[in-house]
Design a protein that fits this description.
about 475 residues; mainly beta; four-stranded antiparallel sheet; 2 helices; about 35% strand; globular
Length: about 475
């Protein structure tokens, strides 16, 4: 068990339960192993990319891609991408040689590299005269994947997890170190990056040590991020205006407390985060949630209250049998107003907002707890509800208002808000009510391994099938010509 030196000389190291710590670290390693592919991936991107999100190059035609398209700048046999993380408007990726790549919006340094030398420059989204330019080309430095300068990172440490927020990127190394860049935003604009010392960090920066023990997992939200150490303690960093940090932040102190801090959660083995709400699973199988909950996305109550906040970690209401045996929680993913829980047996549960079909449940199969507004319209599902008549899944990814799930045979399904084409189902921009297979030429003969969803775009990574595997899939799915 790796023990770290704390930055404060006044802190006395505590006694450690080696059995407990080993249990936590082994559990989290199991989760963390799912972030890195054993084989290089073909990378596919789709959706709306007016802020260079798709990474398909600077041509204006790449601003709207309605079905998954192979990224030509990341050839599988050459670049060898093995992992990626998708933020609100950017993506960071990891190759097999431990290099980081990035593409997307770089207004506040989220890409970790200088893009100022581009011929085409996008207007700052905060500028007074900013407007969508549908006809012009994109910034070629932001719309094309580029490798970061890795000289700041220790040569003997491997990256084991990536995290991408709306305006910040973060990587976790196998020695427990964390590097980050970008900034956090709040309701009033840019909040800052680290305490009152750094407002925007444009290149990778080593975050000062904040735990006595190695960090083993990260979970990024919109403008906050959670960290889990090997002793099962959770830390939070960033904007806390919706109680995302698990503790009350006085407005006059919000810059001075802009660093990772614990807030009382212990014995945790897995963490996850939506845009403004969070989840933590303890070593007994108890799941808690906190943060913004106006559509019941925290899953902590059968009622819905406008503007509601869950101010402290509160037990999530789970269906009978969940967290037991083969029905233990495998992973959690969440968007702005909806949340997904995937079990080890492949079944999928969701809760939250209904307006854009975020929960993936057909309107004629909504549970009795469904919240209706004063006009009798179904608005949200406040309790986790099983999605019926869908495949068994092995991976999930939630964007702001859409989601992608990967079936156990490596096929991607999507649902939710369709106007930005982030569901990848073609020119029809209608919302998709239930998980629907993404079927197109580019991904048809791939086993999808990872998926990530941003604000208005999606990314997936897949491994090509052999000719025999392709034939077997065609028969299984009824795709034979």
């Amino acid at each position: 068990m790796s023990k770290r030196t704390h930055t404060s000389a006044n802190d006395t190291p505590k006694k450690v339960s080696k059995t407990h710590a080993a249990h936590i670290i082994n559990e989290v390693k199991d989760y963390s192993a799912r972030y890195i592919s054993a084989e290089p991936l073909d990378v596919f991107c789709w959706g709306t990319g007016s802020m260079c999100e798709l990474g398909l190059g600077p041509l204006a035609k790449n601003k709207e891609v309605k079905r998954p398209r192979l990224n030509p700048f990341l050839p599988r046999d050459e670049v060898k991408i093995v992992s990626f993380a998708v933020g609100g408007m950017h993506t960071i990726a990891l190759d097999s040689d431990n290099n980081i790549w990035s593409w997307g919006c770089n207004d506040v340094g989220a890409l970790g590299r200088d893009t100022s030398g581009a011929k085409e420059k996008l207007k700052d989204m905060d500028a007074d005269d900013s407007s969508d330019d549908d006809d012009g080309d994109l910034n070629e430095m932001e719309s094309t994947p580029h490798k970061l300068d890795m000289s700041v990172f220790p040569k003997d440490a491997k990256i084991v997890q990536l995290a991408a927020l709306d305006n910040l990127s973060c990587v976790l190394l196998d020695n427990g170190d964390i590097y980050a860049w970008g900034t956090f935003r709040c309701n009033e604009g840019i909040l800052g990056f680290y305490q009152d010392q750094i407002k925007v960090q444009n290149t990778p920066w080593k975050v000062p040590t904040f735990s006595k023990f190695d960090i083993v997992q990260m979970a990024g939200g919109k403008d906050h991020i959670l960290f889990l150490d090997q002793e099962g303690v959770v830390f939070a960093w960033g904007n806390g205006q919706q109680n995302q940090l698990g503790r009350k932040i006085m407005d006059r102190f919000r810059l001075k407390t802009l660093d990772p801090r614990p807030f009382g959660l212990k014995h945790i083995k897995y963490i996850a985060s939506g845009e403004n709400h969070c989840f933590a699973l303890n070593d007994k199988g108890k799941l808690v949630s906190w943060g913004l909950n106006q559509f019941g996305q925290c899953g902590t109550s059968t009622t819905v209250e406008d503007g509601a906040l869950v101010t402290k970690p509160t037990k999530v209401i789970l269906p009978d049998g969940v967290s037991e045996g083969s029905r233990k929680i495998r992973s959690i993913s969440a968007g702005e107003h909806h949340s997904l829980i995937l079990l080890e047996d492949g079944s999928l549960y969701s809760c939250g907002r209904l307006d854009m079909c975020e929960v993936g449940i057909a309107h004629d199969r909504l549970p009795a707890e469904t919240y209706k507004d004063e006009h009798g319209k179904n608005r949200s599902v406040p309790v986790f509800t099983k999605l019926e008549d869908v495949p068994l899944f092995k991976g999930i990814a939630a964007g702001s208002h859409h989601s992608v799930a990967i079936s156990q045979n490596g096929i991607a399904y999507s649902w939710g808000f369709g106007e930005t084409y982030a569901v990848g189902l073609g020119p029809d921009d209608e919302d998709i009510e239930t998980p629907t297979r993404i079927k197109n030429t580019a991904t048809k003969n791939h086993r999808i391994v990872f998926a990530g969803c941003g604000g208005q775009f999606s990314v997936s990574g897949g491994i090509p099938l052999s000719s025999t595997e392709s034939e077997e899939r065609a028969k299984e799915m009824g795709d034979e010509d």
